[in-house]
Amino acid sequence: MSSPARVRADACPGVFATHDAADGPLARVRLPGGVVSAERLRVLASCAEDLGDGDVHLTSRGNVQLRGVTRPGLASRLMAAGLLPSPTHERVRNVLASPLSGVHGGTADVRGLAGELDVALCAAPELAELPGRFLFAFDDGRGDVAGEGADVCWRAVTSDAGTVLLAGVETGWFVPRGEAVAALLTVAREFAARRGTAWRIAELPDPTALLPRGPRSEPVERPARVDLTVGPLGDHGVGFAPRFGQLTAAQLRALADHTGLAGHAVVTPWRSIVLPDATPDAVARLNTAGLSTDPAALEITACIGRPGCAKSLADVRADAARLVPAGVRAHVAGCARRCGRPSAPHLDVVAEAGGYRVGGRLLAASRLAESLVRKENP
């Protein structure tokens, strides 16, 4: 399970430490649990328009990114809106939570746990030095975020108790729901003290050494299941799929206008957005704004490609935009790093000199659609 020692610094971007992309500084804004209020959606829209390239990009950790941030003032705006509660902890506030909890399905309601952990995390000075890739998660029992490779995850087994997973592996440590936040922080503190050069728990020779002493049950592997997060969800919830996880400022404001009684949206780790309370009129207006409720819209994902990334070998999104969903989940990437690839099974489409590598074959961009059809109908 361990891996070689890291020899370079953790360069995960944030607001104060941006990533120098080809299209300008990239700033990542953490949204613990993916929850973002209508007011904060409007703030993000204004920041994208006034300071960046005009769009907001969803990430595979339920966070958002602003690209081309060449003008000053982002941090002060985010702090005023409550989106940056701790300058010292901003890069370590990586917390997933089952996005459909309380909306549709699930064993336990994990709403509020991500926010509770965020407050406690920001109040712990010793945890400000966690690596920017360290990931917490709260799974409501269905197994959706438990399958996302979090460093430490509490997964519900009953409505009021669950087990702790380390690097996606069950440990047999049962913890009541009311103690879940404390349990995850206990593991994080141990990791911070013992990690050496490791960035992730999976890099340690014995991750279970992070657990407190005491009796544990025999670990039981439970299935991971990602329910659809696009289309009608439960009684009033609706999920939307922005193309390639990219939203314009106008679309963000449209979402803010239609959050309904819930007053917030939930950004999922699968680059979709859930409105827990949406009227038919709201759905129609958001569809008109270009936000799809067709689950097939998530079949084709892509990294930013050229011109946004200097390492990309192709204009990935232009090529991917010509693909028609054909029942095959595919991720189109501009280089072998495969940035943004989903954790679920998918077809790798990777740019190389002269075309894209698909299933061991090098194809011209014009033949990508043909390759997807063949995968569906071998």
Automatic annotation (TrEMBL):
Which GO MF terms does the UniProt record name?
4 iron, 4 sulfur cluster binding; metal ion binding; oxidoreductase activity
Tell me the InterPro entries matching this sequence. NIR_SIR_4Fe-4S, NiRdtase/SiRdtase_haem-b_fer, Nit/Sulf_reduc_fer-like_dom_sf, NO2/SO3_Rdtase_4Fe4S_sf
Iron-sulfur keyword on record: yes
UniProt xrefs under Gene3D superfamilies: Sulfite Reductase Hemoprotein, domain 1, Sulfite Reductase Hemoprotein,Domain 2
Q: Which residues form the Nitrite/Sulfite reductase ferredoxin-like domain?
A: 27-70
Q: Which UniProt keywords apply?
A: 4Fe-4S, Heme, Iron, Iron-sulfur, Metal-binding, Oxidoreductase
Q: Is 4Fe-4S one of the keywords UniProt gives this record?
A: yes
For this entry, the protein name equals Precorrin-3B synthase
Task: Give the originating organism.
Answer: Amycolatopsis carbonis
Q: What is the lineage of its organism?
A: Bacteria, Bacillati, Actinomycetota, Actinomycetes, Pseudonocardiales
